[in-house]
Design a protein that fits this description.
Strand content: 25-35%
Number of strands: 11
Order of helices and strands: EHEEEHEEHEHEEHEE
Strand order of the largest sheet: 1-4-2-10-7-9-8-5
Number of helices: 5
Length: 241
């Protein structure tokens, strides 16, 4: 795998959503030149990237969410060291959040509950800089094993055929304690689909499968799904570089 495309085996994520009262350029410079570098040396850190909601039209019948700017921190193994270091730096005031950051933040620690599904294009990817994401949160009735079996053996394989697919993986909220003072959205199970470039082809294929009846959502799925289409607005910052 190319050095710019990390593949953590025990993948954990931290999502930090935020809004701001300054101009975007000032906000982006602070995030890329000060804020992200402060945590890139934490044990287990893989990398970080920033995202905004894309202009891709939502899929029909979903609850389309927008919590603002999203920074995603990727880790190998537990996020406990990340949490401890961020909390320490905040309390010691080594990390100072500017006045232009709106409070409170929304944040989530997530841990993988499936193996990653890699499309053929993933092996050819040189980096993740132009990565686009589709988030699908869901809840279900019945047992977790039936839900997981359907997702991994039927649902994700159907979507992996969409144009531009790189990788898909399922996540649940981690047992890592939230950072103090943040809001933690209760959205359920999360499937993350990663594409190279924009999401229009992905959206068109998923919509086609739904309308044609090729893709059928089981009765144990509780509608509607909550979703986000996201576009990258920074490079993927690799730890150790």
């Amino acid at each position: 795998m190319a050095s710019g495309v990390p593949t953590p085996e025990n993948r954990n994520l931290f999502f930090a959503w935020s809004t701001y009262s300054t101009d975007y350029g000032t906000y982006a410079r602070w995030y890329d030149e000060e804020h992200i570098p402060q945590v890139m040396d934490v044990p287990g850190m893989v990398g970080a990237q920033r995202f905004l909601i894309s202009d891709t039209k939502p899929l029909p019948g979903v609850n389309s969410l927008d919590f603002g700017h999203l920074a995603i921190y990727e880790m190998e193994g537990s996020a406990e060291p990340f949490r401890a270091e961020v909390k320490r730096k905040l309390m010691s005031e080594e990390m100072v959040l500017p006045d232009f950051m709106d409070r409170p933040f929304k944040a989530l620690f997530l841990t993988a509950v499936s193996e990653p599904f890699h499309a053929e294009g993933f092996a050819d990817a040189d980096d993740l800089d132009d990565r686009h994401l589709f988030f699908a949160w869901s809840r279900h009735t019945g047992d977790d094993a039936t839900f997981a079996k359907w997702y991994d053996e039927e649902h994700i394989p159907q979507i992996m055929a969409a144009p531009g697919m790189l990788r898909a993986q399922r996540f649940e909220v981690s047992d890592v304690k939230p950072l103090p003072g943040v809001v933690t959205p209760d959205l359920g199970h999360l499937a993350i689909y990663e594409t190279a470039g924009d999401l229009e082809g992905f959206r068109a294929e998923v919509k086609r499968q739904l309308i044609s009846g090729e893709m059928v959502l089981p009765d144990f799925m509780i509608p509607p799904f909550s979703t986000m289409f996201l576009k990258s607005v920074s490079p993927f910052f690799l730890a150790g570089r």
